Amino acid sequence: MTGVNAALPSASTPVIVAQGLSKTFRTFDRRPGVLGSLRDLFARNYRELKAVQDLSLSIAGGEIIGYIGPNGAGKSTTIKMLTGIMVPSSGTITVNGFDPHRQRSRYVRTVGAVFGQRSQLWWDLAVGESFELLRHLYDVSLQDFEQRFKRFDEVLQLSEFLRTPVRKLSLGQRMKADLAASLIHNPKVLFLDEPTVGVDVVTKTRLRAFLRDFNREFGTTILLTTHDMQDIEALCQRVVVIDHGRIMHDGDLEALKVRYGARKRLLLTLREAVELQALSGLPRSGIEWSQVSPVELVAALSADADNAAILQQCLSALAVADVRIEEPTIEQVVEALYQGRSG
Q1: Distance (Å, rounded) from C-alpha 136 to C-alpha 141?
Q2: Is residue 28 within 8 Å of 47, Cβ to Cβ?
Q3: What is the pLDDT of residue 205?
Q4: Domains of the chain from N-terminus onward
Q5: What CA dihedral angle connects 84, 87, 89 and 91, to 10 degrees?
C-alpha cells in the first residue's frame, strides 16, 4: 500500500503525546417540580464534572495500547480529544505532529477512528458507495484503493454486503465496514472506541486477527478502548488503566497482572474425598487453600511461589487424579486494581 503513510514510524518515536490533559464539563442540577423549573430559569445551581484530570500519555509508533476503565472513567472523552472532536479544557495534544483541533483538516488525513456506537458511513447509501465517497474525500488513488479493498475483503468478506445500504447491515457487518472505512487512507494512527461491542464471537475473532496483521505489516499505531478484556489480551502488550479521569496504571500487561493479580490457581481433583482441615503434608507457606467439593481443592499461589516444588509436595501428600493451573484473567486483575489491593 502506498500513499500518505508509506513510511513506517520508528518504534521509538512518539506519535501520540498528551501533556497535562484535562476536560471539565459544566452542568447544572435541576430542581424538582414546576416551581423548581421556574427557579432554574432565573438562578441555576452549577457544578463542574472533571472527566479527565491532568492526564499525560506518550505512545510510540507501532504500539497497540489498551485503554481501559469502568464506565464514566474518561476513556471516550480522552479519545474524543485525541481525535479533535472535543477541545481540552487544559493541556496539550500532538498526534502525528498535529494539534488535532487546530489543524483538523490536515490532521484527519493521518488518522482513522471507529466508534462502536456510531457509524462513519452514510446511512442510506450502499457500503460500496460510502467507500467510494471516502476514497475521494481522502484523495486515495484508484490503484491504492483497489489494493487495500482486496486485502480488507479477504479477511472481512466485505463483498457479501457491498451493495447493501448501511442501515440494513447487521451490527457485525457494520463494524467490519466501519473498520475498513477507517483504514482506506492507510492512517498512521487508528483510534478504536468499543469496536467489538455487541459483535458475535466469530466476528470478534476475525476483527482481532485483522488488526494484529495490519499493525504488524504497516506499523499502524492503535489505541483501543474496550470493556471486552479478551480484546486486550489478544491485541495489547501495554495497557493504560484510567479511573475518575486519572491514570492508575501505564505499563506492560504482564506487569499489571503481577502487581494486581499475581495469584495463579492450582486446581487439584482427587481420587477420594478428603477434608481440607484434616490434611497434613500440604505446602502452606504463601498459599491460600480452599475446598470446592470433597474431591476438589484449590491453591492460590503467590507470585514468587515455586510451582514445581508445590505440585510435587501435593502429589506426595494426596491421591491426585487431575491437575490444572489457571492464570489470573485480566478481568480479575482490573477488579483487584479498582479495589485497591495487590496480589
Answers
A1: 8
A2: yes
A3: 87
A4: 14-258 (3.40.50.300), 263-327 (3.30.70)
A5: 30
